[in-house]
C-alpha cells in the first residue's frame, strides 16, 4: 500500500531472480526456517553464533548494540570463521566481513519485500518467525552449527519472458540514470495497479507535475474500475534533452486523483556521480 488512503496498489516481483534467492537454513538438530540470500555456501558447515555472544563490550566501553552487530561492538576472535546472527539490517555484513566472519543472518521485522546485496554471504529472515528460532537455538547449545543451503532447483533465463519497459519492474516509483555523456532523456515505463478501494467504483485521472526540461506522457490518462481487485495497466513516457551544466537531478510526479483519494508516483532522472 502506498499510504493508508490509497485506492489501488502496485504489486511487483523479480521472477526467476526472486525464486533463486529463496533458500532454507537448518541447524544440527534439524530446526529449519526460510530466508533470502544471494550466495551459495556449497553445503559447507560453519560455526554459528550471534552478535550478543560475540560481544566485546566492557564496562569501560559500553557503547553500541552488539545484538545488532554494530561497528566496534564485536570481537574478531569470536566472529572469525563463523556465521553471525544479527538483529536488523543496518550494515552488519560490513562489520562481519571486517572481522573475517563467513556469513551474516539478519533478522528484520516486519519481513521485507526487498533485498539488499551483502558484502558477505548473507540471509534475511523474519525476526519473530524464523529469527527467534535461530536465537533460541544459539542460546541452547555451546556447539551451535549452522548451514545455509542454496536452492537445488535450476533456472534458465531463457525460460522467462523479457520484462517490458525501461526497468522491467512494477514499482510505484520510476527512475532514469544517465551517463555523463548521454545527450537525451528517453524511457518508457509499464505499470499495473490493483483497485483496493471501497464504495462507489469510478475513475482516476492522471495529473503530471514536471519541470519544463521533462515531457511526461501517461497512456491512458484515465483509469476506470468497475469492481474491487480489478487490475488496470498504463505506460509512462519520459522524454527530454540533455541536462544543462550544473544540473544533476530532475524530478517529476505522477498523481492519480479521485474524490477522496490520491496516489503518487515519483519520477527521478539523475546523472551518474550525482550526490544526494
TrEMBL record:
Signal peptide limits: 1-20
Pfam families: fn3_6
Statement: the UniProt record of this protein carries the keyword Coiled coil: no
Keywords, alphabetical: Signal
CDD domains: PA_subtilisin_like
Record domain Subtilisin-like protease fibronectin type-III: where: 169-269
Record InterPro entries: SBT, Subtilisin-like_FN3
Superkingdom classification of source: Eukaryota
Stated family: Belongs to the peptidase S8 family.
Name this polypeptide is given: Peptidase S8, subtilisin-related protein
Species of the source: Corchorus capsularis (Jute)
Amino acid at each position: 500500500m502506498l499510504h493508508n488512503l490509497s485506492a489501488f496498489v502496485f504489486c511487483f516481483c523479480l521472477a526467476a531472480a526472486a525464486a533463486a534467492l529463496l533458500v532454507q537454513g537448518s541447524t544440527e538438530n534439524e530446526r529449519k526456517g526460510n530466508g533470502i540470500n544471494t550466495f551459495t555456501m556449497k553445503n559447507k558447515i560453519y560455526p554459528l553464533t550471534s552478535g550478543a555472544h560475540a560481544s566485546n563490550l566492557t564496562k569501560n566501553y559500553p557503547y553500541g548494540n552488539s545484538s545488532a552487530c554494530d561497528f566496534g561492538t564485536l570481537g574478531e576472535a569470536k566472529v572469525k570463521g563463523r556465521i553471525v546472527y544479527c538483529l536488523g539490517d543496518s550494515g552488519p555484513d560490513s562489520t562481519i566481513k571486517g572481522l573475517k566472519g563467513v556469513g551474516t543472518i539478519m533478522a528484520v521485522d516486519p519481513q521485507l519485500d526487498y533485498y539488499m546485496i551483502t558484502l558477505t554471504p548473507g540471509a534475511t529472515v523474519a525476526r519473530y518467525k524464523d529469527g527467534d528460532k535461530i536465537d533460541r537455538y544459539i542460546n541452547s547449545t555451546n556447539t551451535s552449527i549452522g548451514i545455509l543451503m542454496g536452492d537445488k532447483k535450476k533456472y534458465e533465463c531463457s525460460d522467462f519472458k523479457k520484462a517490458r519497459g525501461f526497468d522491467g519492474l512494477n514499482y510505484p516509483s520510476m527512475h532514469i540514470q544517465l551517463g555523463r555523456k548521454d545527450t537525451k532523456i528517453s524511457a518508457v515505463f509499464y505499470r499495473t495497479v490493483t483497485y483496493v478501494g471501497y464504495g462507489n467504483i469510478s475513475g482516476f485521472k492522471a495529473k503530471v507535475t514536471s519541470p519544463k526540461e521533462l515531457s511526461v506522457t501517461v497512456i491512458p490518462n484515465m483509469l476506470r474500475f468497475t469492481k474491487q481487485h480489478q487490475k488496470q495497466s498504463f505506460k509512462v513516457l519520459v522524454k527530454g534533452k540533455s541536462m544543462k551544466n550544473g544540473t544533476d537531478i530532475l524530478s517529476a510526479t505522477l498523481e492519480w486523483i479521485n474524490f477522496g483519494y490520491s496516489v503518487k508516483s515519483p519520477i527521478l532522472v539523475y546523472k551518474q556521480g550525482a550526490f544526494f
